[in-house]
Amino acid sequence: MQLLTAAPATPADLAIVYERTAREGMVHSGLMRGERFEIAEDYNEDWACASVTWSAGGEEEYRFLGDGAVNVRSAGVLTLARGARYAYAALGDAPFRSNMISFPRWITDAAEDAVLEGEAKPAATRLETRLTRPDAALSALMNAIVARCRSGETDDDWYAEKCALLYAGLIEAQDQRAAARERIEAVKPGTRAELARRAETAKKTILQRFGEHSLALNDIAREACLSPYHLIRVFKAVAGTTPAQFLKHVRMDAALRLLKETRLSTGEIAHAVGYSDRTAFFKAFRKHYGAAPSAMERMKA
After folding, report:
1. Which of 105, 181, 198, 270 is geometrically suited to a Cys-Cys bond with 275, CB 3.0 to 4.6 A?
2. Within a 13 Å sphere around the CA of 254, how many CA atoms are in the beta-carbon half?
């Protein structure tokens, strides 16, 4: 397993990382500031592997070949399908922590073999490219993997076991999202699929714009091309919660990540996750986690 705490310095170094990653896998956890990587013109299909990436305290842009861009901030994670081609940019002037786990081909091939051998459902094959919010168990597993990377520990068997568990968990979560789409009330399957796509657009909007103090239901509904009333119904069917509740959870996820992985003050964190009133942020944080932000900071120390 490759363990990286800094970005490759040159395109040649990046190509070496790509080549090794498909065979061995990779865990990267390091500070980024201003790095940019264009889509490799000499891309080799043998480099293709699935990944999951997330950051704290900054913003990363992934521009996909012929399929738009996704911005990753301090909430949610971006899963990358095997073979996804993209240009990368670390935005802003301040350094921030970026994390990525890339799965070796033997892990993804094993998932596909399990389907062929009848040991898994046909849906459980490949990771999709999607900005999403993982559950607490997956978040804890991802954080444990990158924490060990930063510590310099090099137990390949441990990384292989944890990465295999993580990939299986991400696939299971993906399958659960697909199953949830069937709960949408629609006569035609095509209509149900379109409404599910719009609900995903609403999720993506929240995950990318949660830091805007004025972000409201009307803004999210406009992005999803639904009325606010219709969005609430469809979103709840797919996500099991309302857009407003999902936004609160995303903001609290981001706040905890920033507390643990940056040196921002609680006031700066409140502003970064969309609260213009620091008192309102403190109340929301205590209600969500059962402790004040200062207590979480003491745990970090």
Report:
1. 270
2. 31
Residue 193, CA distances (Å) to 130, 180, 189, 238 in order: 16, 11, 6, 11
Give a three-class secondary structure readout of 11-59: HHHHHHHHHHHHHHCEEEEEEECCCEECCCCCCCHHHCCCEEEEEECCE
Q: Any idea what the Cα angle at residue 171 is, between residues 165 and 176, rounded to 5°?
A: 125
CA separation for the pair 164, 260 (Å, rounded): 25
Q: Where on the phi/psi map is residue 292: left (φ > 0), alpha (ψ -120 to 50), or beta? A: beta
Give, for 253, the enclosing helix (H) or strand (E).
Answer: helix 243-261
List Cβ neighbours of 134 (8 Å cut-off, separation of 6 or more).
76, 77, 142, 170, 173
pTM of the predicted structure, to 2 decimals: 0.89
pLDDT of 215 strictly over 80? yes
Q: How far is CA 175 from CA 56, 125, 197, 278, in A?
A: 27, 10, 15, 38
C-alpha distance from residue 161 to each of 3, 4, 11, 149, 168 (Å): 15, 19, 31, 14, 11
> Residue ranges of the domains in the chain?
2-179, 184-301
Looking at domain 184-301, its CATH architecture is: Orthogonal Bundle (1.10)
pLDDT at 19: 82
> How many whole angstroms from its chain centre is CA 286?
24
pLDDT averaged over the chain?
88
pLDDT above 80 (res 232)? yes
CATH number of 2-179: 2.60.120.810
User: Which candidate, 136, 133, 154, places its Cα nearest to that of 145?
Assistant: 154
pLDDT score of 250 = 97
Question: Which two three-digit tokens encode residue 213?
Answer: 């103090």
pLDDT at 301: 41
